[in-house]
Amino acid sequence: MKSIEQEKLSIRSRELAVSLYDKWVRERQTRPDLRFTDNPKELEKIAKENFSSQKAEPRRKHLADLKELNKSMEFPDQVALLAMMELPVLETSTLLHRLSRQVAADPNAVYFSKVNMADNCGCGCGCGCAAMASLGYEEKIILESQAKPYSVDPFNELGTPAATRDKLLALEFIGSFQAISEAVGDKVNRRYFQMAQDFA
Q1: Over the stretch 39-77, which tens digit does the pLDDT of each residue have?
Q2: What's the confidence (pLDDT) of residue 74?
Q3: Do the beta carbons of residue 125 and residue 110 sit within 8 Å?
Q4: Are the beta carbons of 160 and 126 closer than 8 angstroms?
Q5: Residue 81: how many CB atoms within 10 A of its CB?
């Protein structure tokens, strides 16, 4: 049972998470325009530049923002935000399904369990994926998205201690993810639904 003070901290943490998510949505709307070319020789170079401006640099900025606030935000809320940032919606629902089954079998199941590590090839294990170690930032992101879609492994970039990461309960993550995603739906997405209806 949380004390009143702990409850206040939890509420503030969730408010910060939703505020940060809203900020990221607004910033993504101001990304540079995609570049195009009819020259096959320039295509690969421009594709890399587009990936950097549309995905890699915003992601790097999001992690810097989160790192700045991580002392004010509870760890389950940070992980929920990372899942929202890294995973497509369908993959997130699949992750929630798997974690719910684990919690049904063991209410104290940990998020970064051995079975999750095996399934996800390092979802937060900090292994660094030795095969990717020499690749550039953009190449790593592409390969991680293809090879391990459940990976939410930016914990090294955030400087999260292994002990903090490894004691996170699946149930804590699910609680944070539910609270933040519901608040995002109510406070962020609803705004854009309303704007679309107002201008229709």
Answers
A1: 888 888 888 888 888 888 998 999 999 999 988 999 999
A2: 94
A3: no
A4: no
A5: 26
What pTM did the predictor assign?
0.82
Please choose, from the candidates 148, 160, 88, the residue with its C-alpha nearest in 3D space to the C-alpha of residue 116: 148
- Amino acid letter at 79? V
Q: Are 31 and 24 in contact (CB under 8 A)?
A: no
Rg of the chain over Cα atoms, rounded to whole angstroms, equals 18
Contact 136, 166 (CB under 8 A): no
Domain total of the chain: 1
Residue in the block written with tokens 């699946």: 170
**Nearest-angstrom CA–CA distance, 124 and 168:** 11
169: β partners: 110
Parent domain of 133: 4-199
Within a 10 A sphere around the Cβ of 61, how many other Cβ atoms? 14
**pLDDT for the residue 161:** 85
